[in-house]
Amino acid sequence: MANSKYEYVKSFEQPDLLLPSTWIVVRIDGRGFHKLSDRYGFVKPNDRRALDLMNAAAAEVMKELPDLCIAYGVSDEYSFAFHPSCQLFERRSAKLVTTIVSTFTGYYIYLWSVYFPDMPLQPTGLPSFDGRAVMYPNSRLLRDYMSWRQVDCHINNLYNTTFWTMVLKGGMSNTDAEQELKGTISSDKNEILFKRFGINYNNEEEIYKKGSVIYRQYQLEDVKPKAESGKGQEEEEEEPTPVQGGIPSRSQQDKIRKLRRKAQVVIDHVDIIKDEFWERRPWIISGKPGKLPAESK
Amino acid sequence: MANSKYEYVKSFEQPDLLLPSTWIVVRIDGRGFHKLSDRYGFVKPNDRRALDLMNAAAAEVMKELPDLCIAYGVSDEYSFAFHPSCQLFERRSAKLVTTIVSTFTGYYIYLWSVYFPDMPLQPTGLPSFDGRAVMYPNSRLLRDYMSWRQVDCHINNLYNTTFWTMVLKGGMSNTDAEQELKGTISSDKNEILFKRFGINYNNEEEIYKKGSVIYRQYQLEDVKPKAESGKGQEEEEEEPTPVQGGIPSRSQQDKIRKLRRKAQVVIDHVDIIKDEFWERRPWIISGKPGKLPAESK
Amino acid sequence: MANSKYEYVKSFEQPDLLLPSTWIVVRIDGRGFHKLSDRYGFVKPNDRRALDLMNAAAAEVMKELPDLCIAYGVSDEYSFAFHPSCQLFERRSAKLVTTIVSTFTGYYIYLWSVYFPDMPLQPTGLPSFDGRAVMYPNSRLLRDYMSWRQVDCHINNLYNTTFWTMVLKGGMSNTDAEQELKGTISSDKNEILFKRFGINYNNEEEIYKKGSVIYRQYQLEDVKPKAESGKGQEEEEEEPTPVQGGIPSRSQQDKIRKLRRKAQVVIDHVDIIKDEFWERRPWIISGKPGKLPAESK
Amino acid sequence: MANSKYEYVKSFEQPDLLLPSTWIVVRIDGRGFHKLSDRYGFVKPNDRRALDLMNAAAAEVMKELPDLCIAYGVSDEYSFAFHPSCQLFERRSAKLVTTIVSTFTGYYIYLWSVYFPDMPLQPTGLPSFDGRAVMYPNSRLLRDYMSWRQVDCHINNLYNTTFWTMVLKGGMSNTDAEQELKGTISSDKNEILFKRFGINYNNEEEIYKKGSVIYRQYQLEDVKPKAESGKGQEEEEEEPTPVQGGIPSRSQQDKIRKLRRKAQVVIDHVDIIKDEFWERRPWIISGKPGKLPAESK
């Protein structure tokens, strides 16, 4: 339509394209969730309903954006990873981040009543999330990022489990519990749980200890025994063969997107630090859809 | 808590601070709202419920973020402006944009049933919004940005009103109406509306013709008659006196934020291109809270 | 010419356009000049030859880039300012900065023998400079930037003058002089200079006390007496009337560039903190060439 | 020293850190060298003195910045590559680019008289260079970048050699030569050279056909015959084992820098597109200094 003399202001918009051939991680975080968890009486140290709601919202994001390879969530945060070959929105940073944040928030609000049927959202201070994009130049770094989040999950959960057990079951004040835990290492906390409360931390639920990982499900690959696996591993860690430097054509992108939509999106609570997770699911790093389980018959 | 050997991945996060002493406009846009408006049967050319819902969500954003000076909305887009002196989130771009996008989306979903009581949201493809931040170095440019959006509103609304009248009342096909309107100017469209359908475009509702502007309400200033106003205007267009180059201290910020929270957030449908709107509400450009209406007595 | 299959790597170049309608300051700094000044026996506290060489190189930069409005130098650093309306190299940051750094370095090396005829450059560790661009959204901030550099010049020169007088004339060791100056304020240093060495700091050369400012010379404007100058000052501080938001057309740019080339580039050692300097040379802030001195007759 | 009230302007400087673990290529280009080559009568199609001067300046840059792994030059441009593990200047983009541009320019001017003894530089319009940094996330992309430049060298040199032979030896006008070459492919140009002028393009000097590559010399590695080399190649293409994600400690950096300074900087005119060049010099991609030739005895 007709232009106006004011249209020059468009020139102030600055490009924000993320570097090609680089993993893009979008991490979102709940805003003020400490206060929010008090307001809606989230169970300590972990509220299963709240985590299931986070996972449900994240799974919807994965379904709406087939370009996403994997997501990992813990507490009120979630990280979503786009493949280096991803061309969605021309890799514009703000567009990628806001689309994820908005889609996630929408489902979080929409599905709230499913997970908190007796606790309606109050009309002010609705839950909200902020987000940011971070680039990782290769898959080793992406895996280290994911490991970082899962180690954090472990460290925080062991602390929180011990702290809240001391407070809720041990009758200690928050301050006393905090004081006693200061400077302790993992084995100390395990011992407190076991000796004082008969709790074996290993028996805690996996979702609390490992967080949640979401990905598309294809037929799992066999893991080669270590002796032979040298080569296999190397291949896996290699960057995918570049198509014009890893930039697939538009029609290739559409085809891959379509294939990805067909795969089931699954939520898992497993170790993503060791190689096994990635070796059995090579499609996550390669960005190439695997065989659908149905096809295996 | 304890660090892990993976923590180095944090160093890949890159700073994204917006330039100090510069207006920040965050514009959000509905994603795929063409399809969405079909799905939920939005009335053509304007669906009052949908616009009221946009305005309600935007008003909540303004209430939650007192640093915002003004917002302007049309169709499925909304622009929010932070003052040059704003220090919220250290002016980190992604944080500012995602907070607005997330808060807006949350309220849009949450309030949907209020405005569309008979049309529940469907569980896939929820409404979502993307967003971006644009910087404008002075208030003249901010006003030109706002004018750009309001001129766009006018141009689009006149076109849409004429087009849909020709189709819905005139029984024309979409293609025929489009064909006839090609190359027409405003007066042509006004004439089609008036001569064929007896519609005076000037009598259309202001919300459709002008869009919606949201701001905090203080006591309006008198507009000086033009003859004397030379100086007044100049003052108004000047950038605010710099406090350390326009960067207020933390306690000044808190004080201003508190004052802003007290003001009523109002939704208006008025001309924001001419000077009058801005002259009568100098607090928008100055960033300094005006007198509350109650105080005037 | 023909493209190769490797050409896709061009897509990794990221845009780096500086915000329109914003002052651009490119500051360059000598690399390792402390060591260099020892190597070539620069006179302490100020080496007139070295400063004259800096100024000569900066003046050549001003002549080669008519888009520059003003430059200010002190010690081994120089700041060059482009007007908000500048469109040179589409305002690409790297291009603007490297062009200035390269041109400056070239003249510094080329003219070295003129200022140090008995001290030829040695073939390793040639003098070199780094640089960066900083944006300032309005002329108040540009002036504050310039004031910052000139205040720094004053503070450093008073310190250095006192320190080297104590060492060179007073026979103190570097450590003792440093120790005695620790915690002193300006008046203390003035007193040391005057009482012990009979030196009145005010009589030191202006180039050392004020640094060097370079600009194009037009006919100076009369400064209105303060009583009346209120309005004049305001006008001066206003941003220039925007041409499409301050973005002149290509032919306007060429015309202005041509006019600027005609003006003489002068090197001055005067106060640039107070208003007078700017009021008498309004073309610096306005970006509009003034009247050439010749025209005044 | 004492701060001034103007110091707040420092906050307008924005960080420009390049992504960690990513190759950084700084490419510099002669400004207006077409005109410059006329002015100083550069020989067509290649002026050996001008190329030798470019190479000499680039070699000095390599010596002054041991963090550089490789450089490649053709015509009036030069590309310098920093390793992904490089931490020089905290990877600040402007600092890296301007240091290279300034050092290069300095040596170019300083050494001019060595290569053009009879052709002194004129005091206006000195040669100057602009520059930019581009990031490449892995070594495959770096090699594709280098291949891109070398293919460009070949394409341009074949064209220029043919064109200037037609003009200078064949007596054709520029326009006629240009016209005839329009649409020709490599074999056509080879044929023109051979059939009309008896010139076998393959016998042209390597520096013209291949450009110039500069690197540090260590003991060359044997190239494994292709049959066995599968694994070797893979290893070579792998990213180096990350030390904290490829970020070496400060003392590791210093140690590596020291080792690199010991290596001889050599200028070569060889194929850098095929694997051999890189396989025999694995230190370029690995960033780990090889064995010094002397050590091999």
- Give the overall average pLDDT of chain A: 91
Distance between the termini of chain A: 55 Å
What radius of gyration of chain A results from the CA coordinates?
Answer: 22 Å
Oligomeric state: homotetramer
Structural class of the helices, strands and pairings of chain A?
Answer: alpha+beta
- Please give the CATH architecture of the domain at 18-146 and 208-213 in chain A: 2-Layer Sandwich
Number of helices of chain A: 11
Spatial sequence of strands, sheet with the most strands of chain A: 4-1-3-2-5-6
Q: What can be said about the biggest beta sheet of chain A?
A: 6 strands, antiparallel
Commentary on this structure:
4 copies of one chain form a homotetramer. Chain A has a domain at 18-146 and 208-213: Alpha-Beta Plaits, CATH 3.30.70.3000. Helix content of chain A is 46%, strand content 13%. Chain A contains 11 helices and 6 strands. Chain A is globular and about 65 Å long. Chains in contact: A-B, A-C, A-D, B-C, B-D, C-D. The interface between B and C is medium-sized, with 18 and 18 residues.
What secondary-structure arrangement, pairings included, does this model have?
Four copies of one chain form a homotetramer.
Chain A: E1 23-30, H1 33-39, H2 48-64, E2 68-74, E3 77-82, H3 93-115, E4 129-136, H4 139-168, H5 174-181, H6 186-197, H7 206-210, E5 212-217, H8 226-237, H9 250-262, E6 264-268, H10 275-280, H11 282-286
Antiparallel strand pairs in A: 1-3, 1-4, 2-3, 2-5, 5-6
